[in-house]
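Researcher: Next entry in the queue.
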Amino acid sequence: MQRIGTTARAFAAVAAIALSLAACGHGSTNPAPATTTAGAVPGATTASTSVGTDKVKQLGTVLDAQGLTLYHNTQETNGKIVCTGSCASTWPPVAVTGSLPSAPAGTQGTFGTVTRPDGTEQLTFDGMPLYTYAGDAGPGQATGQGIGGIWFAVGPTGSIETKSGGASGGSSSGNGW
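Model: Structure for this entry, 177 residues:
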C-alpha cells in the first residue's frame, strides 16, 4: 500500500510540473500562440486576416493581432529595421505570408510590408513596422507601452500613443487618439 501511495504522489508531481511547463507557453513572458514560417523570426506573429482593434485602459483603441497589442519602435524609420536578434524575441515582429490583412472597421491607414534583415516580410501600418510584446498575455494589455522611451502602441489612425499606461484590460471613456 505504501508503494502505491508513493507512486501516486510521484505521478501527481510529474503531472503538476508538466501542466506548469505547458502554461508557461501562454504566460506573461510569451506572446499568444503564433504561426511561423520557415526562416521566420522565432516567436513572430503571422498576420493574414487577423488584425483588429482593442481597447486598452489609459490608452484607448489600439491595433491588435491575435489579441495582442501592436507596437512600433520609434527608432525604425524609412524602412530601417533595428529590432533584430534578442530584441525580436522580446518584441516579436508581425510576419506576413501571403496577402495583407484586411483593415478593421474604423482604421484610417494602409497596411504594407518591409523586408527584415533575415528576409522575413514584416507587416507595416502607414510605413511603421509592427510588433507584439512578449510581456502581453492577451487582449486589452499594453504592458510594453513606453518601454525604453521608444516602444509605443499603434492606434487605428496610424498614430502612436505616447501616453504612459501599459495597464491591462477594460474600456476607456475616450479613445486617446
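Model: The chain is about 15% helix and 20% strand.
Researcher: Noted, moving on.
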